[in-house]
Amino acid sequence: MNFEQFDHKIRDAALQRAFPLEQDVPDRLNQLLRQLQARGQEQDKRREERAG
Question: What is the pTM of this model?
Fold first, then answer.
């Protein structure tokens, strides 16, 4: 392993320790997507009520 590879590996490990939030991102994204989907469904219902 050359110095650049070693440096990159060490920096990545340090960033992951410093910012562990990346592990929570998928769960948070799923939650936000569900909220957006629910809002979209509510808007669709309102449009149908107005049209119907």
Answer: 0.45
pLDDT at 18 over 70: yes
3-state secondary structure the chain: CCHHHHHHHHHHHHHHHHCHHHHCHHHHHHHHHHHHHHHHHHHHHHHHHHHC
Residues 6+ apart with CB under 8 A from 1: 9
Task: Enumerate the domain spans of the chain.
Answer: 3-50
- Give the integer Cα–Cα distance in Å for 32 and 1: 41
* Cβ atoms 22, 16 nearer than 8 A: yes
